[in-house]
Specification:
Elements: H1 2-15, H2 30-39, H3 59-88, E1 97-98, E2 101-104, E3 111-118, E4 122-129, E5 133-136, E6 148-160, E7 166-174, E8 177-186, H4 206-218, H5 223-253
Antiparallel strand pairs: 1-2, 2-3, 3-4, 4-6, 5-6, 6-7, 7-8
Helix pairs in contact: 3-5
Pfam families: MAM33 (PF02330)
InterPro entries: MAM33, MAM33_sf
GO cellular component, one term: mitochondrial matrix
């Protein structure tokens, strides 16, 4: 009996904390807060002392450096090419006339226009493209000559009086000759898409073909015109190329 009471007192003593230890009261949710707070603790980052700037370049700075380097290369190459073209063979000032024709240069465009009046009431307009094709050139026995023959397309439009029909002759200009490709007649207004345009020029009678060449030659559309167009377009090609490079250069130089 006494031993049982002693045992109960010992158990009670072990169950109660000693009076010398502080009592900790845990409120609802306090343990979760402490746990989550401790989980967010991260190692201390190195903070540079005042006045010290980090030397690691930013991605933006590196990107700007690369962009600047690329633009610098483009500008250098464009300036060199422009200088080379101007020093090697600078383009000449375009002429305003060829024989009886006035020449409208159309700067920045890929074609020119020639005009003249023939006789009392005939008006001739020629629209010619820049070089639009080439074929392999035939060389002499020594193998000397150009590698290709450049091609120019042009259209001759002939009208009589104000409201007359239009005779339209489509041609090719080779370096020293012209070639008729097709001819048709249509109203002075816009040509309808369903208009019958006639046979190809090569399908016509040989004598009729010769007569049409004579018809054009009488009006100044001949082999000399072909030579002029090739010389003019070679100069225009160089002029437009230099202008194009200069336009690209100015765009790259613009600040963003």
């Amino acid at each position: 009996m006494a031993r049982a009471r002693s045992l109960r007192r010992l158990i009670g003593t072990l169950a109660d904390p000693p009076s010398c230890l502080p009592k900790i009261q845990m409120q609802h949710g306090q343990h979760r807060f402490l746990h989550s707070s401790s989980s967010r603790v991260s190692p201390k980052k190195h903070v540079p002392p005042p006045g010290c700037v980090s030397r690691a370049p930013s991605r933006t700075y590196i990107s700007e450096m690369r962009k600047s380097a690329f633009e610098g290369t483009i500008l250098r190459l464009l300036r060199n090419e422009i200088q080379y073209e101007l020093e090697r063979s600078p383009p000449a000032k375009p002429v305003g006339r060829f024989g009886p024709f006035t020449v409208d240069d159309r700067p920045g465009e890929q074609w020119i226009r020639l005009k003249r009046k023939f006789g009392e009431n005939e008006y001739i307009n020629i629209e010619a493209t820049m070089f639009d094709g080439a074929i392999p050139a035939s060389k002499n026995a020594a193998g000397i000559g150009e590698d290709v023959e450049l091609h120019i397309s042009f259209v001759v439009k002939i009208t009589k009086d104000k409201d007359s029909n239009v005779l339209e002759i489509m041609c090719s200009a080779w370096p020293d000759s012209i070639e008729i490709k097709k001819l048709l007649v249509h109203g002075c207004q816009r040509m309808p898409s369903s208009l019958y345009t006639g046979p190809g020029f090569k399908e016509l009678d040989d004598e009729l073909q010769d007569a049409l060449y004579d018809f054009l030659e009488e009006r100044g559309v001949d082999d000399e015109l072909a030579v002029f167009l090739h010389q003019y377009m070679a100069n225009k090609d160089k002029t437009e190329f230099i202008k194009w490079m200069d336009t690209v250069k100015h765009f790259v130089e613009m600040k963003t």
